[in-house]
């Protein structure tokens, strides 16, 4: 990417508006290569910029692995608050491109979700072509029949309002009302709708444990950790 103007860089990283950058420069809060910055139109290397003496906050983008707690919405619409983005520092919520979820989990689903401002990464990992396997732990209101394993594996399960049947999914029964489902696609409310379509039971709790090779480890609900792009095992452009 070609170098950005200083005012655009700081606004994009969520520090303040482009207009406010002038005030920050007058107040001596911004330095380039050790000297006070005066020109909002300068195009410095982000690595040379300091704000209040500190290096820039994630100038090359943010990638997070989050353990989503129940009750948060994967939406940017404040009317649907509380939002998963409320877990993040205010500056990260003000970035452009915005930090967004890679796919979504329902408000009443917990577990592993990725957040990033790497637009390319969002497209790659949500593309139906990519087929990232995701594992969900499911609890139901009724006992599950072993026959369900074949129903999920058949690749014929038709969800209401969808043109194509679900791709084959792996169902592993863990107990009478507990199972693990592996999906390679991400239709809206897919796990809940698959159980509904199979006519077997209603999902009463849903938790995503893995996304590709990634797991939550000991990350507590509501916490996140930074992820290196390399942990995704993808080939990606080195910068946005
Ligand atoms: N399937 C669902 O039903 N809900 C989710 O949040 C994810 C998958």
Number of strands: 13
**Most strands sheet:** 9 strands, mixed
H/E series: HHEEEEEHEEHEHEEHEEE
The proportion of residues forming helix, as a percent range, comes to: 10-25%
- Percent range for β-strand residues: 15-25%
Flag low-confidence runs: none
State mean pLDDT (0 to 100 scale).
95
* Secondary structural class: alpha+beta
Distinct compounds present: uracil
Based on CA atoms alone, the radius of gyration comes out at 22 Å
Counting structural domains, the number is 3
What's the CATH architecture name of the largest domain?
2-Layer Sandwich
Shape: elongated
CATH level-four homologous superfamily name of the largest domain: Pseudouridine synthase I, catalytic domain, N-terminal subdomain
From the N-terminal CA to the C-terminal CA, the straight-line distance is: 7 Å
Q: Quote the CATH topology of the largest domain.
A: Alpha-Beta Plaits
CATH class of the largest domain: Alpha Beta
Number of helices: 6
Brief account:
By secondary structure, the chain is of the alpha+beta class. It contains six helices and 13 strands. It has three domains: 6-55, Structural Genomics Hypothetical 15.5 Kd Protein In mrcA-pckA Intergenic Region, Chain A, CATH 3.10.290; 63-128 and 215-228, Alpha-Beta Plaits (2-Layer Sandwich); 133-211, Alpha-Beta Plaits, CATH 3.30.70.
């Amino acid at each position: 990417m070609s170098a950005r103007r200083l005012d655009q860089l700081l606004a994009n990283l969520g520090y303040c508006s482009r207009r406010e950058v002038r005030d920050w420069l007058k107040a001596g809060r911004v330095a380039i290569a050790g000297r006070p910055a005066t020109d909002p139109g300068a195009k410095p290397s982000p690595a040379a910029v300091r704000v209040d003496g500190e290096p820039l906050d994630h100038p090359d983008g943010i990638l997070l692995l989050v353990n989503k707690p129940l009750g948060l919405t994967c939406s940017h619409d404040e009317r649907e608050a509380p939002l998963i983005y409320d877990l993040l520092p205010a500056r990260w919520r003000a970035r452009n491109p915005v930090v967004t979820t890679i796919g979504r989990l329902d408000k009443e689903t917990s577990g592993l979700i990725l957040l990033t401002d790497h637009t390319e990464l969002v497209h790659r990992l949500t593309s139906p072509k990519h087929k990232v396997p995701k594992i969900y732990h499911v609890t139901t209101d009724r006992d599950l029949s072993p026959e369900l394993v074949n129903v999920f594996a058949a690749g014929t399960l038709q969800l209401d309002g969808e043109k194509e049947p679900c791709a084959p999914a792996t169902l592993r029964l863990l107990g009478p009302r507990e199972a693990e489902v592996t999906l390679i696609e991400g239709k809206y409310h897919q796990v809940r709708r698959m159980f509904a379509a199979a006519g077997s039971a209603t999902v009463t709790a849903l938790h995503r444990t893995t996304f590709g090779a990634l797991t939550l480890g000991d990350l507590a609900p509501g916490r996140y950790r930074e992820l290196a792009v390399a942990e995704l095992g993808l080939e990606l452009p080195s910068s946005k």
